[in-house]
Amino acid sequence: MTTDLFSPIQLGRYHLPNRIIMAPLTRNRAGAGNVPQALNVLYYEQRASAGLIISEATQISPHGVGYPATPGIHSAEQIAGWKQVTQAVHAKGGRIFLQLWHTGRISHPSLLPNGEQPVSASAIAAEGMASTYEGEQPFVAPRALETTEIPTIIEMYRQGAANALEAGFDGVEVHNANGYLLDQFLRDGVNQRTDAYGGSIANRARLPLAVLEAVIEVWGADRVGIRLSPSSTFNSMSDSDPEQHFGYFVEQLNRYNLAYLHLLEPSESDLRHGGKPVPTSYFRPLYHGNLMVNWDYDFAQGQAVIANGEADLVSYGKLFISNPDLPERFRRNAPLTPFDPATFYGGGAVGYTDYPSLPDSSVPDSSLQDSSLQEQQISS
Ligand SMILES: Cc1cc2nc3c(=O)[nH]c(=O)nc-3n(C[C@H](O)[C@H](O)[C@H](O)COP(=O)(O)O)c2cc1C
């Protein structure tokens, strides 16, 4: 039998009913104090038929905030808010990991405690504009973290991971992609340090791996994933040799037996911005565990990449925004609702919880394995 998106899979500690994963999606709709609220509970609950939900990026500390109205996992109120989310997803038979986030230089003093300067590997400002409560403002030059401050950063991740456990998540994904703090350390376009955390790739990988190990101590490796974007130029990122550097890093990950490695494919925008594209297929032979791929996949492309063995799972972002029952739509070959980028970031229920599911698609995924029931569903 061919393996496809509907084939169950063992992902670390969990048995997933399908390989259609909800990608992490920042939606800027947290309540006051960056606390998840009832609207967010409904949004995640609606998407519980994903093989796994990966939450929107969630700051581990007030010092790691980079955008307005993004949720945190550092206060008692935030933990309580997330508990409502995890309970609702579990009640629908789903599973949800939290994406652990520190934005580093992709921030602004107005978003940080006491108007402090953002931190990074080196004092190099990102190009472009920060999103703030007062609108877009130019990125400021960050402050390079002192070597003596690194243990505090690792501790922030450990505490964020422990808080996610308390909030009832099923696991965590370390956000090491898209130009945020850990990526700022990993890639030599930003990391110009001369201490043990800069220079060689082994040194640049030191903080990301130390964070991963701290998080694993809390969760066990079989409930931890990591996300990487080797080719991405987003947030003015670059690397002199992503093939060699990320190749090294991915091989290091083999030591841990993680739940999964989540890789972003090169995008057209990366090519336009001078990125050096490395397809995820390059990393397939280097990594020995479950590989999740992402970027602009449609149903047919997702089916193909699983069937030909280039990946074990596919995560979908934008399609999950506008199709809360995406696995069922794929299964029925039903039309997909188009997404509206104007409502991606911020606002209320419009473009968030008002995208419809197909009639009857609240039926748990596993019961649809029975083909007679499936036919009944399709005809009703
Ligand atoms: C609205 C929006 C918010 C996003 N937020 C996050 C995020 O919080 N963390 C992250 O790692 N990637 C984030 N991404 C990237 C997506 O996870 C994904 O990589 C991207 O949308 C490409 O996949 P897709 O073509 O299936 O949408 C975001 C993308 C979009 C469109």
Description:
One of its GO terms (molecular function) is FMN binding. Its cofactor is FMN. Residues 4-335 form the NADH:flavin oxidoreductase/NADH oxidase N-terminal domain. This protein has 380 residues and is of the alpha/beta class. The protein has one domain (9-379): TIM Barrel (Alpha-Beta Barrel). It is built from 13 helices and 14 strands. The strands form 4 sheets. The chain has an 8-stranded parallel barrel, surrounded by 4 helices. α10 (299-307) links the parallel β13 and β14 (313-316). α1 (38-46) runs parallel beside α2 and α3 (150-166) runs parallel beside α6. Bound molecules: flavin mononucleotide.
Rg value: 20 Å
- So what's the oligomer here? single chain
In N-to-C order, the SSE pattern is EEEHEHEEEEEHEHHHEHEHHEHEHHH
How many domain regions? 1
Report the strand count: 14
CATH topology: TIM Barrel
- CATH class reads Alpha Beta
Give the distinct bound molecules.
flavin mononucleotide
Summarize it:
This is Alkene reductase. The protein is an alpha/beta fold and 380 residues long. It has helices at 38-46, 76-91, 150-166, 181-186, 201-204, 206-219, 242-253, 268-272, 280-283, 299-307, 318-322, 326-332, 371-379; strands at residues 9-11, 14-16, 20-22, 52-59, 96-101, 119-120, 129-132, 135-138, 143-144, 171-176, 224-228, 260-264, 291-294, 313-316.
List the main descriptive attributes of the protein structure presented here.
380 residues, alpha/beta, TIM Barrel, eight-stranded parallel barrel, two-stranded antiparallel sheet, 13 helices, 16% strand, globular, disordered C terminus, binds flavin mononucleotide, Aldolase_TIM, FMN binding, oxidoreductase
